[in-house]
Amino acid sequence: MYRATNPGDDQIIAGEWELIDAATATGWAHGSDITKIDGGKIYTDSITADKINVNQLDALAVNTGNLNVDGYIKSNNYVAGTTGYKLSASTGLEVNTGVIKGQVLETNAISEIITATATNKSTGSTSYVDLISAQITTPDATKLLILFQAGDLRLNYQEDQSDWIDIQVLVNGVEKTGARVGGLFADISGGILFYNQRLPTQIHHWEAVNAGTYTVLVRWKIGRSGITAYAGDSFAVKLSLMQNKK
Predict the structure, then answer these.
(1) Half-sphere exposure of 75 toward its Cβ, with a 13 Å CA cutoff?
(2) What is the rounded CA–CA span in Å between residue 116 and residue 242?
(3) Contact 20, 1 (CB under 8 A)
(4) Which residues pair with 213 in a beta bridge?
(5) Looking at the DSSP assignment, which residues form a beta bridge with residue 179?
(6) Inter-residue contact 142 to 174 (CB < 8 Å)
(7) How far is CA 91 from the centre of its chain?
(8) How far is it, in rounded angstroms, from Cα 93 to Cα 111?
(9) Roughly how many angstroms between the first and final C-alpha of the chain, as a whole number?
(10) Tens-place pLDDT, residues 46-76
(11) pTM (2 decimals)?
(12) What does the H/E/C string look like for 100-114?
């Protein structure tokens, strides 16, 4: 290895360069022949590299194009479910502190709302018969909101404790919830007769489901023979299904 006799020389000219001692000449190299660079002598904007492999990289600011992360990115105050944020390829984004601005819609969070309607329905049956149904397909595990509305549900008359309407909600053939309306005046001596008594009814139910297709069926029946239940005369009976991740 040669070095310039005079600082600043950048050309090999006879008499201006001299051979360094062999020990000195090899002193710049690492003992395993791996290049060693003194970090204290690296100047700003002096390194350009296609790839850098490090166990830990501390930097005040990083400007990058594409950033591929095998693990996750998180804030230094991240505590699961409490503070900070974490972005993970396996678990997604968790934000516990701060505000996410703009429109945010999780994939498949509210992916579909199904609404079925029915009009001019009636029954005089004391056994359950179908009133309305709807079907929805969920692409992932989710919570299914079932909302049933019958704003003009009515009985042609009420005078007995059995003058009621039972409503049953089933998911894929399994009963999940229901309601009984009517039979309000059974404890009054002698009874009171009401004609076309309206019994507006609304039922909502959350059901945890996995990916799949689900049929929601609403059935109804009356408490005794001789009376008739009606729905959907003035306002349509509605059954709405909404899938929501939360």
Answers:
(1) 14
(2) 12
(3) yes
(4) 137
(5) 167
(6) no
(7) 11
(8) 19
(9) 70
(10) 777 777 777 777 777 777 777 777 788 888 8
(11) 0.55
(12) CCCCCCCCCCCCCEE
Encoding tokens for residue 172?
């894929």
- The CA-based angle 184-187-193, given to 5 degrees, is 60
Q: What are phi and psi of 26, to 5 degrees?
A: -95, -5
Residue with tokens 């950048």: 10
Three-state secondary structure of the chain = CEEECCCCCCCCCCCCEEECCHHHHHCCCCCCCCCCCCHHHCCCCCCCCCCCCCCCCCCCCCCCCCCCCCCEEECCCCECCCECEEEECCCEEEECCCCCCCCCCCCCCCCCEEEEEECCEEECCCCCEEEEEEEEEECCCEEEEEEEEECCCEEEEECCCCCEEEEEEEECCEEEEEEEEECCCCCCCCCCCEEEEECCEEEEEEEEECCEEEEEEEEEEECCCCCCEEECCCCCEEEEEEEECC
Type of residue found at 133: S
- Residue 161 tokens read as 């404790």
Q: pLDDT above 90 covers what percent of the chain?
A: 34
Domains of the chain by start residue, with CATH: 1-38 (no CATH), 72-104 (no CATH), 113-244 (2.60.120.760)
